[in-house]
Amino acid sequence: MPRPAPSPSNYVGRFAPSPTGALHFGSAVAAVASWLAARSAGGRWLVRVEDLDPPREVPGSAVNILATLAQLGLHSDEPLMYQSGRSEAYADALSHLLSSGCAFHCTCTRRELAEYPIYPGNCRSKGSTIPTDQHSTRFLTNDPSIGDFVLRRADGYWAYQLAVVVDDIAQGITHVVRGADLLDSTPRHLQLFKALGSPAPIYSHLPLARTRAGDKLSKQMFSQSIESADPLSVWRDVLAFLHQPPPPHAIDTIEGLQNSAVAAWSPESIPAASNVRSHWLDGTSEN
Ligand code: GLU
Ligand code: ZN
Questions:
Q1: Is 16 near ligand 1, meaning CB less than 6 Å away?
Q2: Which helix H or strand E contains 247, and what residues bound it?
C-alpha cells in the first residue's frame, strides 16, 4: 500500500557544492541523500554554490554541477545562493563575533605556526584591535581539541567555516546531510551557531567509500566524474551505495525513481563508517 504523502514540514535541507571540478559520485551521494531526507520529511531542499575560494575554483564547474544536478532531477526549491555574493553578511557576522569577544585578529605567519598541531593562542590578547600588518581573524574557542580556527584569511578571503554557518542561518537550514569528510568541521560549526545566537541544524554524515580501508576500486568510483554518466544508473548506484532497497527494474524515468526512492527511504539502512556519527546511525543528534 502506498504511504500517505508527508504533510509539509519545517524541514529545510540543502546541498552545498564547491565549484572546484565536475560533480563526482561522492557529491552525488550527498546531493541525493540530502534531497531524499528533505522530500521524505515533506520539507524543502536548497542548493548553495560555495564559490568563496576563487584560487581553487575551476571555471565553468558551477554551471556543470548544476546541469548534472538537473539531469538527476534535483532542483533547488529556492533561487540559488552564491557565496561569492555574500561578503556583506560574512562581514556583519565577523564584526558581531569581534565585538562580543568571540573572535580576534591574528598576525602569526604560517611559518610561526608550522610546528603546532593546533593554534597556540599567540594573538588572543589582540582582540578586535586591528593590526597594521596583514592578519587573519580567528574564532576564540574554549575547546582545546579544536583550536582557534580562521574565519577570515590573511589574503582577505572568507573561510568556509564562517560562510557555511552564516549561510545555513540565513537560509533557515534545519538539517544538514553531508559527507563524513566534513565531520571534523561540525564541532566548529556548532560553536559558531552558538556564538551567533542561532540554533544549530541537525547533522547527519554519510559514509565515504574511502573509509573502507584498502578498497581502491571504490575510492576510484567515488571520485569519478558523473557528468556524462546515465542519470538513471547514477541514481541506482547511489541508492545501492546507501543500502536503500533497489527500485523496481521497470522504472525508467528519473521522476519514477525519485518517487520510489522517497517512498522507500530508509536512513537507518545507510551503512555506518567507523568514523561516522550521525543522528540516523546512533539515534542522537550532535547538538
Ligand atoms: N562546500 C562543501 C564541499 O563541497 C560542503 C559544505 C557542507 O556541506 O557543509 O565540500
Ligand atoms: Zn596569531
A1: yes
A2: none
Strand partners, 106: 136
Q: Decide whether any atom of ligand 1 lies within 6 Å of the 50 Cβ.
A: yes
Same domain as 176, residue 77: yes
Same domain, yes or no, for 49 and 26?
A: yes
Residues with Cβ–ion distance below 5 A, ligand 2: 106, 108, 122-123
What pTM did the predictor assign? 0.90
209 and 277 inside one domain: yes
Give per-residue pLDDT as tens, 214-267.
454 455 666 778 888 899 999 999 999 999 999 999 999 999 999 999 999 999
**Smallest-distance ligand from the CA of 154:** 2
149 and 58 in a single domain? The answer is no
CATH number at residue 41: 3.40.50.620
Give the count of domains, the chain: 2
In eight-state DSSP terms, residue 177 is E
Our answer on whether the CB atom of 33 is closer than 6 Å to any ligand 1 atom is no
Proximal ligand: closest to the CA of 206: 1
Query: 210-243: b or e for each residue (b if 16 or more CB lie within 10 Å)?
Result: bbbeeeeebbebbeeebeebebbebbbbbbebbe
Residues 219 and 261 in one domain: yes
4 Cα to the center of ligand 2, angstroms = 56
